[in-house]
Amino acid sequence: MLLACGGSLSPAAAGDLDSIQSAFDNGFGTEQRAPRTYASPFEAQVASLASAQEGRIGVAALDLGTGQSVAVLGNQPFPMASTSKVAIVATFLDGVDQGRFRLTDQFPLMIPVPSRKFDGPVAPVRPGNMFSAENLIEMALTRSDNHATDALLAVVGGPQAVNRWLRRAGLTELHIDRDIATLVRDDGAIDPARTIDQRDSATPMGMVRLLTGLYQGQWLSASSRAVLLGAMERCRTGQHRMRALLPEDARVAHKTGTLYNTSSDVGVFHMPDGRAIAVAIYVTGQGGKPNRDARIAAIARALYDGYSADSASLRRTAAR
């Protein structure tokens, strides 16, 4: 919502404007409505690419070496969609580290049973074929397989078990309310470009904090970390998103998400000098999925180039 006015306002009109602005802030955060002054052309470019004129766009990026961060609507909730699968897999792998599960354990896929939208709080599912946990993780993260994800989610104890793991990790800006079968069945009730739904949501900064902790080995063993990040590096979905405009040899570990009027891509990419950049990009609206994909690709490339330029600047400074 963009508010513009000129001249003086009557007390009633001023009250209405205050009410509108208060509603804006309550729903979409308290980021400045006035034109912002950016610290660098890099930040200005990212903000321009993440313009909310055609739908909300949230971006957060963090250089894990220098701590330099960039964010646009970084503290607004966005639909996690399938980017939640990173947290679900992490919760399962924490159970492996605790000795509750093994990667060789066999579990059934959770197959949705046809049901009407909103017909009950949980969509019905039935057990399907058995797969090892290692295969379920691979399917969930490389192909975004919903049935495999719900299998892992059922094993750990459902959405609340994932939320407990997130809270123990200090991650309060992400939470899961429904399994994937229910999320997909009831998709489309709310337009995320116009309305914030707190359910099954993450802020871009919250997701970056999750990616950072996983990458740095804060919550998982070295072997579990390797399983998760290795699968994310083999991700096959989102070829027109984060990877699309990056150099062909760029190393990227990522996970995509797609629901009604929203697309996303989150992950870690490595700069040529070895630095790791944690990135979360959530896009709504934009006139359709191809446009959302293109916006993600452009923002990812701007982040890659911006952090590359920062690295070159640091090298020049060090050489003086």
Notable traits:
320 residues; alpha+beta; five-stranded antiparallel sheet; 10 helices; disordered N terminus; disordered C terminus
The proportion of strand residues reads: 15-25%
Mean of pLDDT: 87
What overall form do the CA principal axes indicate?
globular
Number of helices: 10
Q: In terms of per-residue confidence, which ranges show pLDDT below 50 for 5 or more consecutive residues?
A: 1-27, 29-35, 314-320
Which secondary-structure class do the elements indicate?
alpha+beta
Helix content: 40-55%
Biggest beta sheet attributes: 5 strands, antiparallel
Could you state the order of secondary-structure elements as H and E? HHEEEHEEHHHEHEHHEEEH
Radius of gyration: 21 Å
How are the strands ordered across the major sheet?
2-1-10-9-8
| Count of β-strands | 10
> Ends: how far apart?
47 Å
What does this structure look like?
This protein is an alpha+beta fold and about 325 residues long. It has ten helices and ten strands. The protein has helices at about 10-30, 40-50, 85-95, 135-140, 145-155, 160-170, 180-185, 205-215, 220-235, 290-320; strands spanning about 55-65, 70, 80, 105-110, 125-130, 175, 200, 250-260, 260-270, 275-285. It has a five-stranded antiparallel beta sheet with strand order 2-1-10-9-8, with helices on both faces. α3 (about 85-95) packs across α5 and α4 (about 135-140) crosses α9 (about 220-235). It starts with 10 loop residues before the first helix and ends with a helix. Residues about 1-25, about 30-35 and about 315-320 have low confidence and may be disordered.
